[in-house]
Amino acid sequence: MIECYKNRLWYQDFAMKTNGIAVGCKMTVIKLDDDRLFIHSPVELDNALKSTIEQLGEIVAVVTPNQSYHHYLSEWWLAYPDAYFFAAPGLQQKRGDLTFDDVLRQYTPALWQGQLLQTLIKGSDNFEEIAFCDPLSKTLILGDLLAWMVDKKHPLSIGYGLLNGCYIHPAMPFYLRLSFTDRVRLRQSIQEILTWPFDRIIFAKGKVIETNGKQLFSTAFHWLFHA
After folding, report:
1. I want to staple 206 with a disulfide (CB 3.0 to 4.6 A). Which of 130, 148, 200, 225 is the partner?
2. How many whole angstroms separate alpha carbon 50 and alpha carbon 83?
3. Model confidence pLDDT, tens digit, residues 7-60
4. Euclidean distance between CA atoms 6 and 57, whole angstroms
5. Structural domains in the chain?
């Protein structure tokens, strides 16, 4: 795993394909104030990753930001039965084989209240995502809301990024943008995020934004405020 902020925040790249195209994804790990771990978008749990994580601390929460990142939940659910599992909206119905402790919403659960910020991205009839921010490390943590495929080398991956407008610059992929028919509600969600203290952005697909994240995030949604 790559450490972004000393003894606080890490991420793990993982190879993943969408419709046969290598797009990748990322898991983020945050050490909360009580030294327990918050896991965002869990990836495949092999022995090496399990060992690395357990050296960092005890897992208290496993969260899925949207319905796309559930494929390896069973492994985590079996390995960490004492952890709290939080489903993205709609995931409980999709994964009826798992027992979730709660569903992520607009409000912040007590486990990380006062430590992490979160909000529900609104405005789409078929896509909901929870965005998180860790003020201590000044990191915004997303699922699919933004992507930046500039680090991809395979022609299909490059084509995916170009067709979805998220290769040259960080952007909301076109396929996702089309699902947001209520721009007023989406604008409210983005405005809330822009009040948060962040400089770095970690998202599932593509290169991590290490600096100037708030400006790049604002630029990525210029179309929303100037349509």
Report:
1. 148
2. 14
3. 999 999 876 656 666 556 799 999 999 999 999 999 999 999 999 999 999 999
4. 14
5. 2-225 (3.60.15.10)
Query: What's the chain's length in residues?
Result: 227
C-alpha 31, offset from chain centre: 16
Please list, residue by residue across 133-168, b when 16 or more beta carbons sit within 10 angstroms of its beta carbon and e when fewer do.
Answer: bbebbbbbbbbbbbbbbeebeeeebeebbeebbbbe
β-bridge partners, 206 = 148
Dig out the tokens for 51 from the structure. 């060992």
How far apart are alpha carbons 44 and 197 in whole angstroms?
30
**Range 198-201 contact pairs with CB under 8 angstroms and sequence separation of 24 or more:** 198/133, 198/135, 198/138, 198/139, 198/140, 199/138, 199/139, 200/4, 200/137, 200/138, 200/139, 200/140, 201/139, 201/140, 201/141, 201/142, 201/146, 201/170
The pair of structure tokens assigned to 185 is 């509600």
